[in-house]
Structures are given as structure tokens and as C-alpha cells.
């Protein structure tokens, strides 16, 4: 018997209960709406009645069958499992002996990913062809397991089958567009340089020829299909694919921006057009605001006419404000900010800019306790040398540490990566005008000033993102 497709049924009560022998797991429990792009990193703010060993939650807000991810942080491990949930489901989560399992109304909708996730996607080791082939192997294994699962469990719904098939496919596309670089899940965006490396390394006639085969059946037609829009990886795949489609030269030039804008206006419609255009505007503001300022402003006007009630408008308007701050000196309160040198002296931000001379200044906001910051300092070391040589620039490190000794100790540990040069600590981290003005709410964060001390990019790409960072530097040199 096939289960009823409940997508058309609204306001049914969905209940989630649970038991755990890990007292911390339910204290730090999340239900992530993974196939809703805007919420892929945050839960819907479920209000769950938590106890050390049990939970109870009910809602009528679940209006559509979809994948969510159970994410619980236990005493010694993270419990993680995507499940397919429908309005009206009653679900029971059990954490016992270090394992997470789920039972309930449609039990076979909850257990698929426990099996197929055992086939893990690879880590990118600087060989794109090898990485892509391994990703394809994992996708095929997952897809085969899914087809076998359907045969063994004929009672699963058609909605489950359709959405799971799309999810598995888009997980693959996401992996080959956003290259996983370590076990923590950090990613590097695919860019033209990766295709060039393959072309040279494997003797393929042209990087363009390889790029055409790389994406397989991914197409504008598929990405414009309303049925795929709510996939958790959709927006990232959409923007990256349109950006890379036939684009293997100057990635973030004004002409390229206009090409991408026209693709979204002419090849896509409705939510695909809205999400793709919004994220393209935001990406170009991040990477190349200088060269593209007039085109971006015009595109924002067009976007507001097309989508006057868009949820993206707040973020776009916020990002657009930063364009107006470009090519100007920072305000006086920022210039007067006091920094501590590695020798223990104090210096103003203004004097620091003067000391570095008529060079481009890349400010790296970091801290001794910040793992991603340290990763970027180490991994970006080689690139930084190339950037400094080719673009006449200086790297300036400003730590937001509150512990002076830990800052000094970590700086010394990283000295072979150049951290002793232009190394500073905020004198008053809590009340810092630098932090307030540039909204340094997360690190690492990169801000670029030109040789005149004018702000040119307040949210620059990471130096580890080679092509994006090159685009940001070219943005300065071409203006």
C-alpha cells in the first residue's frame, strides 16, 4: 500500500518525542529545515520542551512534506540524521549507546540516510578530475542504495521518492561545485583555475572543453524546475553554475556581471529568477564592488521593480550601503582607534596606514582562539606571497583577542606564515570603533584599503579563495 501524499493537507499536528541516555544531547538539539535554502544553517526556532533524558514538541506549522535534519550535540559526539517528515507525523527520537534512531508514523521515511550516509563524499586534494570522479562514484552508490530501498519498502510515498531522488542528485552537484577541503566540512568554491589545472595536468585540449563535460546533466532547464527550488543546496548550485557557465576568464568583471544578470532575467522565472539574481548581486558586492558599482546599483533598481516584496531586499539594501562607503577614508573615530603592536607599543589605526606606505592594505581580523582564522593564515600563506609580489600590497593582522599573552603566543607560533609583520591587537576590544563600524561580528574577516588609505572592500573574499581574491584585487587596480 502506498502512503497518502500529505502535501495538500495543512494544519495537521506534527508531534516529536524522544528519549536519550546522553544528558547533553537534548539540551543542544536542533531540527534543521535543510531543504529550505534560506534556513539551511539555522532551525526554524522550534520551541521544544526539553528534559535531560526526554523531549516533547508539537506544531501545526509544518505545511509540507520535507527533509529536516536532527542535530544534537552530545557529551562525546554529534548526532546527525536527515529524515523525511510530513504534516501529521508522530515521531520518536531515541539516542542510546551513542546511536541515534527514529521511529514513528512513517518509519521508512526516517531511516534511509542512516544507511546511505555511510558512503561518504571525498576531500578535495588539489586534483579536480580525481575528486569529481570519486564524487560521482559516491553518488552512484547512494543512488543505487536508494533505488534498492524503494524496492524493499514499497509503502513509501511518491512524494518521498521524488524529493529524495532530487536531494541525492543535488548533494552531488553541490559537492562538485563547492569542493570539500577538510573533514569539518569547510568548502572552497570551484573556479576557473581548477579547470586550467586539469587541462594542463591531464593534457585535455582546453579547459573549456573539460568544463562542458564536468557538470553532466546540470542545466538551466533543470534549475528552473519549480520542483527543485526547495532543495537545501539549490541556491548555491544555481548561482555557481550560472557564474561558471562558459565563464573561464575574468570571473567578476562588469561584462560578466551583465551576462549573468541577463541569464537570470531571460532564462529563469519566478523564485529561481529572484533567488539567483539576488545572490549574484550579493556575490559581486562581496568580490568586486568597485568595478561593478554602477551595474550593481542598476541591477538593484531592476530587482526592486520585479520583486518589491522580496525577502532578499533587507540583505541587498544592507550590502548596498557599503558601496556608498567605498573610495573614502574611514571616519575619524576609526582612524583614531588605538592598537597595540607586538612589541607592546600603542599606535593609531591612521598611523598604521601611514606606516605601511603607498601599498594596498589587506586587513585580516583574527584571534588566537579562532580555528578558521588560523586555517586561513596557514593555507593562504603561499597565495599571500604571490599577491604581495604581483599587486604591491601589505598584509595587516588585527586581533580581537582579549588575552594579550595568548595573542602573543599564537602570533609567535605562526611566525613562519608572516604574522610578526604588521601584527596588532585592539586596545579595547569590547568598545572598538573598528569592530562597530565594520560590523566585525564573525572572523576571519578581510577588509581592503587602497594605497591612498581609502576603503575599497569591507567584506573581501578569503585569500584561500584564489580566483575570488584575485577578482577583488583586480577590482582595485582597474579603478
From TrEMBL:
Residues 328-478 form the Thioredoxin domain. This is Thioredoxin domain-containing protein. The keyword Disulfide bond applies. Gene3D superfamilies: Glutaredoxin. It comes from the Bacteria. It is found in: Cell envelope. GO terms for cellular component: cell envelope. Its main location: other. It comes from Polaribacter dokdonensis DSW-5. Keywords: Cytochrome c-type biogenesis, Disulfide bond, Redox-active center. GO terms for biological process: cytochrome complex assembly.
Amino acid at each position: 500500500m502506498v502512503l497518502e501524499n500529505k502535501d495538500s493537507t495543512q494544519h495537521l499536528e506534527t508531534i516529536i518525542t524522544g528519549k536519550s541516555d546522553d544528558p547533553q544531547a537534548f539540551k543542544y538539539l536542533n531540527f534543521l529545515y535543510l531543504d529550505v535554502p534560506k534556513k539551511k544553517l539555522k532551525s526554524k526556532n522550534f520551541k521544544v520542551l526539553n528534559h535531560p533524558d526526554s523531549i516533547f514538541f508539537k506544531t501545526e506549522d509544518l505545511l509540507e512534506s520535507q527533509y529536516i535534519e536532527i542535530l544534537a550535540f552530545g557529551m562525546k559526539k554529534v548526532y546527525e540524521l536527515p529524515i523525511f517528515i510530513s504534516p501529521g507525523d508522530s515521531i520518536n527520537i531515541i539516542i542510546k549507546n551513542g546511536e541515534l534512531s527514529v521511529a514513528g508514523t512513517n518509519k521508512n521515511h526516517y531511516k534511509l540516510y542512516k544507511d546511505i550516509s555511510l558512503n561518504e563524499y571525498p576531500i578535495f586534494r588539489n586534483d579536480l578530475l580525481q575528486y569529481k570522479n570519486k564524487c560521482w562514484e559516491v553518488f552512484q552508490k547512494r543512488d543505487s542504495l536508494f533505488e534498492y530501498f524503494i524496492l524493499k519498502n514499497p509503502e513509501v510515498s511518491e512524494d518521498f521518492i521524488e524529493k529524495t531522488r532530487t536531494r541525492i542528485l543535488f548533494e552531488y552537484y553541490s559537492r562538485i561545485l563547492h569542493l570539500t577541503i577538510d573533514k569539518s566540512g569547510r568548502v572552497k568554491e570551484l573556479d576557473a583555475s581548477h579547470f586550467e589545472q586539469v587541462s594542463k595536468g591531464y593534457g585535455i585540449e582546453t579547459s573549456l572543453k573539460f568544463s562542458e563535460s564536468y557538470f553532466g546533466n546540470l542545466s538551466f532547464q533543470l534549475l528552473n524546475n519549480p520542483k527543485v527550488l526547495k532543495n537545501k543546496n539549490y541556491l548555491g548550485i544555481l548561482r555557481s553554475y550560472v557564474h561558471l557557465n562558459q565563464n573561464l576568464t575574468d570571473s567578476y568583471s562588469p561584462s560578466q556581471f551583465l551576462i549573468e544578470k541577463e541569464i537570470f532575467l531571460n532564462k529563469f522565472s519566478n523564485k529561481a529568477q529572484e533567488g539567483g539574481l539576488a545572490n549574484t548581486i550579493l556575490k559581486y558586492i562581496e568580490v568586486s564592488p568597485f568595478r561593478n558599482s554602477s551595474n550593481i546599483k542598476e541591477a538593484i533598481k531592476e530587482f526592486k521593480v520585479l520583486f518589491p516584496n522580496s525577502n532578499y531586499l533587507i540583505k541587498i539594501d544592507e550590502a548596498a550601503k557599503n558601496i556608498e562607503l567605498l573610495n573614502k577614508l574611514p571616519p575619524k573615530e576609526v582612524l583614531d582607534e588605538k592598537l597595540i603592536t607586538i612589541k607592546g607599543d600603542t599606535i593609531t589605526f591612521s598611523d598604521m596606514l601611514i606606516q605601511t606606505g603607498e601599498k594596498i592594505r589587506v586587513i585580516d581580523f583574527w584571534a588566537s582562539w579562532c580555528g578558521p582564522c588560523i586555517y586561513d593564515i596557514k593555507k593562504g600563506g603561499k597565495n599571500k606571497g604571490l599577491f604581495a609580489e604581483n599587486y604591491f600590497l601589505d598584509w595587516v593582522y588585527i586581533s580581537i583577542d582579549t588575552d594579550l599573552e595568548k595573542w602573543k603566543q599564537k602570533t609567535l607560533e605562526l611566525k613562519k606564515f608572516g604574522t610578526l609583520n604588521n601584527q596588532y591587537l585592539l586596545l579595547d576590544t569590547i568598545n572598538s570603533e573598528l569592530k562597530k563600524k565594520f560590523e566585525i561580528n564573525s572572523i576571519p574577516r578581510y577588509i581592503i584599503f587602497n594605497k591612498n588609505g581609502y576603503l575599497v572592500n569591507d567584506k573581501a573574499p578569503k585569500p584561500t579563495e584564489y580566483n575570488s581574491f584575485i577578482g577583488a584585487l583586480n577590482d582595485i587596480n582597474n579603478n
